[in-house]
Amino acid sequence: MTQPTEDRSPQIGTLNEKPLHAALKRWAALDGDRFEVPVGRFVADIVRGNQVIEIQTGSTSVLKRKLTVLLGHYPVRLVLPVPARKTITTLDEHGAEIRSRPSPKRGSLFDTFDELMHLRALLGDPNFTIDVALIHMEEVRRPRRRPKRRRWNKDWEVDERRLIEVIDSVSLHRPTDYLAFVPPSLPEPFTTADLAEAIDRSRTVARKIAYVLREIGVLTPSGKMGNAILYERSFGRGPESGPNL
Questions:
Q1: What number of other Cβ atoms are within 10 A of residue 3's Cβ?
Q2: Which residues does 153 contact at the CB level (< 8 Å), separation at least 6?
Q3: Does 194 fall in a domain?
Q4: Dihedral angle sign, alpha carbons of residues 78, 160, 113, 122
Q5: Which of 13, 80, 141, 144 is most buried per CB count within 10 Å?
Q6: Percent of the chain with pLDDT over 70
Q7: In the listed set 173, 201, 217, which residue is the last one of a domain according to the structure?
Q8: Which residue range is the domain that position 192 belongs to?
Q9: pTM above 0.90?
Q10: Which residues of 6-127 form beta strands (DSSP E)?
């Protein structure tokens, strides 16, 4: 493996960096890390020795090409935040705070699968680790600056997102780590309806989990019950093989 290029331009990529991204980068960093380092034709958020660390606060679909190239040469750690709690702060047109309130919505580790679906071809790569960070986030809203394009557009827009705290984090590295999302008590074979009931989430969430775990080879289709696919674990059901969710 080649070493990433020495960082000679510490401001690369930081001019338009958003507050949430910058705060998570500080949270993930250790003494001696280098920031905004050119790595081939890309720029890495953090380089630690030979490891590349990326922070992604938006859709992971835009990262597939970058990660595919980097994983061929370096160990890569990807930090994905999930808003477990959200505080909504509303500003007026002059930027003065009108009110601040907690959002009733609560996120969980299972929400990570919205983004993991885009990366399913890379999950389980021995060079790839995902750190899911459960965060408390402040979402700052202000009146929409541009006219609404559609009737159902909201009268406000998100001005920025800020990190209040990282509540917890879980690392996913080996394929078997992802089996932690399937409760060990769930008997085999099972359907996505059984999985949804076991994790107290919607059938849609359970389908995403089953799809990703099937793609990385830790769930195996074993037949059908009516129109529902039956699944079995490919590596047993011991929670000791993965992170504690």
A1: 11
A2: 144
A3: yes
A4: negative
A5: 80
A6: 86
A7: 173
A8: 180-241
A9: no
A10: 34-39, 42-48, 51-55, 76-91, 97-102
